[in-house]
């Protein structure tokens, strides 16, 4: 455990600005990196018409940067609760319990995040909420790597709260939390980047039957009323909303 530092508004403000900047840099590097990889492979993600594509990417980046600020604030509050008051369930010592709980804690966080995402996402596809809250994300037709955080502020807020809230109640080592955030970041980008980075044998095998990849989420952007999950196909399969995988041009 690390000792809490005395509370100060100055440190709280600096910490929140820092987390926001980290989220912004993380977005630019992850989306930029995968967009570059996409281009290097000679793949054009997004609309075929260059003007429409440019306009869409500009909107995706603008909404994502607004979302990054919204994500940075609860993350800053969570870190403040941890560092000033020792309120969170984040651990720093690496004991035997930590070692045994390390992988299960990652799976549990991902499963709970996926559950939250699936049900709020389905809710946002209702006629009333879709227009005001979720249409921004579906303006990406088809999406590009830059769409990873392209959400209306209300949707961004719902996405930003869960992991910081979980960190107050479910014990997790800081390194395991780092893994959760890395998986969240990478999958948020790769599921939108317009091509499948995993080998066909994986996508069509056990891995693809359980884990969501670009082929699964692309179908959501095409058909809207299916494939609502984030990491796992679990809820879609249980609730009859899984409509299979999109085929990318070879
Ligand atoms: Zn999407
Ligand atoms: Zn949707």
What report would you give on this structure?
- The protein has 250 residues and is mainly alpha-helical.
- The protein has one domain.
- Helices cover 67% and strands 2% of the residues.
- It contains ten helices and two strands.
- A two-stranded parallel sheet has the order 1-2.
- It is globular.
- The termini are far apart.
- The structure holds zinc ion (2 copies).
- One zinc ion (ZN) binds at residues 121, 125, 134, 137-138, 220.
Q: How many strands appear in the DSSP assignment?
A: 2
Helix content: 55-70%
Main beta-sheet strand count, sense and barrel state: 2 strands, parallel
The helix tally amounts to 10
Class from secondary-structure proportions = mainly alpha
Order of helices and strands: HHEHHHEHHHHH
Task: Kindly report how far apart the N and C termini lie.
Answer: 51 Å
Shape: globular
Strand content: under 5%
Number of domains: 1
Mean model confidence by pLDDT: 94
Poorly predicted tracts of residues: none
Q: Indicate the radius of gyration in whole angstroms.
A: 19 Å
Present as ligands are: zinc ion
Strand order of the largest sheet: 1-2
Topology:
Blueprint (H helix, E strand, L loop, with lengths): L8 H32 L9 H36 L4 E2 L4 H29 L2 H12 L14 H17 L2 E2 H17 L9 H4 L2 H5 L3 H10 L10 H5 L12
Parallel strand pairs: 1-2
Question: Could you give a quick summary of the protein structure above?
Answer:
With 250 residues, this protein is an all-alpha fold. It is built from 10 helices and 2 strands; from the N terminus they run ααβαααβααααα.
